[in-house]
Specification:
The protein is α+β, with helices and mostly antiparallel strands. 20% of the residues lie in helices and 32% in strands. A hairpin with a 3-residue loop joins strand 9 (168-175) and strand 10 (179-189). The longest helix is centred in the N-terminal third of the chain and has 14 residues, at 80-93. The two termini are 28 Å apart.
């Protein structure tokens, strides 16, 4: 891991983000009844086995390369979020450049945001959130009576009638892969269980319909961190997350990681 980071820091500008992807996968061990510390994992349904958390460096702007920096088993006393937070903190400690982590919907919630705060991790994160998730705006001014409010207006992502007015909206006319794209951003929102941690909400919409005439599902992202990136480019960083999925497929199919009994 340190060799990867040292080489990257030589090639990258001091202020350029190191892009890492975090995910967790499972090794099904349903027949290994004497295997210690098996857990219930979700992988195309609930299975019995062992979970593994991986943080991988995504070194290129295009392509599917992902170099795993840490690949560790998740014990029954931990969780994917706690394990990922520990791995991300270790990478930040060994990196001179700022770190940007991209994560899927499993981490797009208050639990991950609170884990970042509690562990004091100086990384920026871009997470996908569920299309039916809810976020809240900043609370109104204190009236002087009762307990100060923690939440403002509720925004249900699945209900456009509850959406606040976007702070920023741009259109990218012809993206080379996605065609015309519309991107909206809402600033200073928060999850219900993490009212003190502000996040930015990003909506990405492909304007061209699918081959069957139906619109593409919207992509909802949340940014949390002190540094910011231009809206024109920040949303596209999430698409690089799929490099870690290619790594899992390579490890299981070509390296036969989960083949032994």
């Amino acid at each position: 891991m340190l060799l990867y980071l040292e080489q990257l820091q030589k090639e990258a500008a001091p202020t350029e983000h190191i892009l890492v992807a975090i995910d967790h996968t499972a090794w099904e061990r349903a027949d290994a009844k004497t295997l210690q510390d098996r857990t219930h994992e979700y992988q195309r349904g609930v299975i019995v086995g062992q979970g593994y958390s991986t943080i991988a460096w995504i070194p290129e702007a295009i392509g599917s390369w992902a170099l795993p920096l840490l690949h560790e088993r998740i014990s029954s006393g931990s969780s994917p979020i706690l394990q990922a937070a520990s791995q991300l903190k270790l990478v930040c400690e060994h990196s001179v450049n700022p770190v940007l982590a991209v994560l899927d919907r499993e981490y797009g919630n208050a639990s991950w945001v609170l884990a970042l705060t509690e562990a004091d991790i100086p990384a920026d994160c871009l997470m996908r959130v569920r299309k039916n998730a809810c976020l809240w705006s900043a609370p109104p001014a204190y009236s002087g009576r009762g307990r100060p409010p923690k939440h403002g207006q509720k925004m249900r992502l699945g209900d456009p009638t509850t959406w606040l007015e976007a702070d920023t909206e741009i259109e990218i006319d012809e993206h080379p892969d996605l065609g015309k794209v519309r991107v909206k951003q809402w600033l200073d929102l928060h999850f219900y269980r993490a009212p003190g941690q502000k996040v930015n909400l990003i909506l990405v919409e492909r304007m061209k319909p699918m081959s069957n005439g139906q619109p593409f599902p919207p992509l909802w992202l949340v940014w949390v961190g002190e540094r910011t990136l231009p809206l024109e480019t920040v949303w596209f960083k999430y698409l690089r997350r799929f490099g870690v999925d290619h790594w899992y497929r390579f490890a299981k199919q070509r390296l036969h990681w989960t083949l032994p009994n």
